[in-house]
Prior knowledge:
This protein is of the alpha+beta class.
Amino acid sequence: MPASEDLYVLAPGEGEDESDGWVSPRPVDEAVRAAVADATDTDPDEIDDAESYVDLAEIAALLDGDGEDDSLTFAVESHDVTIDGGGHVTVDAE
């Protein structure tokens, strides 16, 4: 199983305008915490590591796949977090 620090994704707002050629992915734990905190006004320190909510092997398989259209959704603190095949993280804050 991969370690969370080996999996890098893009938090909301990162990588959306890649015209300047600079994209800075974050470790999945950091990106998920930041995304949920931003969407819900939760303190990032109150959010567990990603592996508490989803199997890291599933994230690794998604990121290693060919399909940008593929995605993985899991619940974090009662909110749906989605990681797409391109590594973008989004949160349904409802």
